[in-house]
Structure formats: structure tokens, C-alpha cells
Design goal:
mainly alpha; 12 helices
């Protein structure tokens, strides 16, 4: 009975320490392993049919895939930069528009609630000025002073990418030999089973979040295009990205925006934004259980709890590492309890392997 409670506790501690301290050291190689698993069928086909060395085949596949992804990123980036280029010369206009918006909103509140508009406007503008001054005094100098740290981080990132690329080529070349040598060990079959289940669950989770994020982005871009917003693409992408973050979602932008439009009597825009928020929220509520909960066998609230705990333990990376840790703990506990059951009944785990 005591072992029954000690095993999950030990697994939880082990997974936490591993995700916290070991995984960051091996991230390039983990990415390399994931890429190899994805491209290996193509590598094997090219090796058998075209008689191409597996390392060369992996290199060709990565060059083609990397080129296509770079082209897509370039086109998307160019479209975003076009909207930024249109935005920058009009900063002064938007600043005056913001002041006018604040003034009109204060007057509307005065007419509605009887609050002095001048006092409200003064308070709002003073807080805006304080925020801008704080950015100029603190944030911008910090960015300039820490520029060496950012350059160092960029160099480390590109170094990790190069290590991953080289590792993909080397691993693709020797994958069959490594697998053949490892098959003689029982732990290899156990490890493969656990990795396969965890990888499938992780892929399901990430794919589901990506699908929801893309749908939200498309909905937002479409609604803003209907509103004839000149920055529909940029704002839609930002809202779509925010929707993937827990406890934030689309409401961080859409709810205040809707209220501002309503206060300024732009009821058509307020109605569109309100409907957009409702549609985005309903879409996530309908899609998330079907894409995540039912396929993983885990309730969405448990995934949300894992994300929250992950952020507390790992920082911002906990958005991913939190649910991954939960899945690893779940699969390891299932394996050990299943093994204990088979040993009790006299069966041997892995005999079929």
C-alpha cells in the first residue's frame, strides 16, 4: 500500500526535475529526434527507391521543407510589414484620434452618469502620460542596455538550430542501426511504448490548439475586414495568438474594444466586435472538448490546471511543458501500475515484444 503512493510521488518529482533541469540541456537533440521521426518514412523511401544515402536524403528533405516554410513566413511577414509601414507615418494622427476618443468617451459618461468629463479626461490623460514616461525611462533604456544579452540569445538560438540540423542528418543515417541494437533491451520496448503514447498525446494537444488559434485568427481577420479596419491582418493575428494563452484569450482585446465603440456610439462596430467575441468563445468551447478532451481522455479543466501549474513551475514555457509533464506522469503511472498488476497475476510485461 505504501509503494502504491510512493511511486506516483516519485514519478512527479522525477518528471519535474527532468523537465526543469535536464530537458533544456537536450532541446536541440529532442527537436532533432522529433524531426527524424516525421521525415523517416520519406528518407527510407528515397534510400530504397532512389538509392540515395539516408543522410543526403534527410538533408534534401530539410532543404525543401525549410525553403517552403521560409517562403510562407516571408510572404506572411511581408504582408504584416506592409500594414506596419502604413501605420508608422500615421502615429501622430492616431495619437490625436486617441485623445479625441478619450474626450468623447468622457463626455458620453458625463451625459449618462453625471460625472464631470473634465476630471475624468484629465485623470485618463495623466495616466497615459505616466505610462509613456515610464516606458521611456525604464523599458526602452533596459532594452538598449540589455542588447548584448539579446544578441547572445540570438546566437545561442541559431547555434541550437544548427546542432539540431546536424543531429537530424546523423540520426537519420544511423537510425536503423541504433534501433536494431536497442531492440535487445527490455527497457527499449517500454520506452518506445511510453514515448509513442506521450508523443501522440502531445501532437493531439498542439494540433488542437493550432487549429483553434487559426480558426480564431481567421474569424477576427474577417470581422475586422468587414469593419474596414486597415490593420485587420495584424490585429487578427495578435488576437489569434492571445487566444492560445490561458486566462487571457480574445476577451483581453475584444471586450474593451467593444465597450469603447459602444461608448462612442459606434454601435455597428460594437455589435460586430461583440458577436465576434461570442463566436470565438463558442468556437473554442465546442472545439476544445472534441479535439483535446475526447482524444486524450483528459478533461479540458485538467489541461487548464496543468497549464496553470506549469506556468507557476516553469515560467512562460509552462504553457507547453505543463501539459507535457501531466501526460508523461499519467503514462508512467499507468505503466508502473500495469506492470505491478501483471507481475501479481504471473504475467511478464513485454513478452510479446
Amino acid at each position: 500500500m505504501q509503494k502504491k503512493y510512493l511511486v506516483p510521488f516519485g514519478i512527479i518529482i522525477g518528471v519535474y526535475l527532468g523537465m526543469k533541469y535536464l530537458v533544456p540541456l537536450f532541446i536541440p537533440f529532442l527537436f532533432a529526434g522529433i524531426i527524424v521521426m516525421i521525415i523517416n518514412p520519406c528518407v527510407v523511401w528515397m534510400h530504397r527507391k532512389l538509392k540515395i544515402n539516408k543522410g543526403i536524403a534527410a538533408t534534401v528533405i530539410m532543404i525543401i521543407t525549410g525553403g517552403l516554410l521560409s517562403a510562407l513566413v516571408w510572404m506572411a511577414g511581408d504582408a504584416v510589414m506592409c500594414q506596419f509601414r502604413r501605420f508608422l507615418p500615421r502615429i501622430g494622427i492616431y495619437e490625436n484620434e486617441l485623445c479625441r476618443l478619450v474626450r468623447d468617451s468622457c463626455q458620453t459618461m458625463e451625459q449618462t452618469f453625471g460625472i464631470d468629463a473634465v476630471n475624468i479626461e484629465t485623470l485618463v490623460l495623466e495616466n497615459i502620460n505616466v505610462m509613456v514616461d515610464s516606458m521611456q525611462v525604464n523599458i526602452i533604456p533596459d532594452l538598449m542596455n540589455d542588447s548584448f544579452i539579446y544578441v547572445k540569445g540570438a546566437a545561442e538560438f541559431f547555434g541550437a538550430v544548427m546542432i539540431s540540423v546536424i543531429s537530424v542528418v546523423l540520426l537519420s543515417k544511423d537510425l536503423e542501426k541504433i534501433s536494431e541494437q536497442c531492440r535487445h533491451y527490455e527497457w527499449f520496448h517500454v520506452l518506445c511504448e511510453i514515448i509513442q503514447k506521450v508523443a501522440s498525446a502531445i501532437w493531439t494537444f498542439l494540433k488542437s490548439q493550432l487549429i483553434i488559434m487559426i480558426i480564431t485568427g481567421i474569424l477576427c481577420i474577417t470581422a475586422l475586414w468587414i469593419m474596414k479596419n486597415p490593420y485587420a491582418l495584424i490585429i487578427g493575428i495578435i488576437i489569434g495568438l492571445l487566444d492560445a494563452l490561458p486566462f487571457i484569450g480574445t476577451g483581453l482585446i475584444l471586450i474593451p474594444w467593444t465597450l469603447v465603440e459602444a461608448v462612442n456610439q459606434n454601435y455597428t462596430n460594437a455589435l460586430i466586435l461583440g458577436i465576434l467575441f461570442i463566436v470565438c468563445s463558442i468556437s473554442r468551447e465546442l472545439l476544445e472538448p472534441r479535439l483535446i478532451g475526447k482524444k486524450l481522455g483528459i478533461y479540458p479543466i485538467v489541461i487548464m490546471l496543468a497549464i496553470y501549474v506549469g506556468i507557476k513551475l516553469y515560467g512562460i514555457s509552462g504553457i507547453i511543458t505543463g501539459p507535457v509533464s501531466l501526460l508523461i506522469i499519467y503514462e508512467l503511472c499507468c505503466f508502473f501500475f500495469r506492470k505491478e498488476t501483471t507481475e501479481t497475476t504471473g504475467d511478464s510485461y513485454g513478452d510479446d515484444g
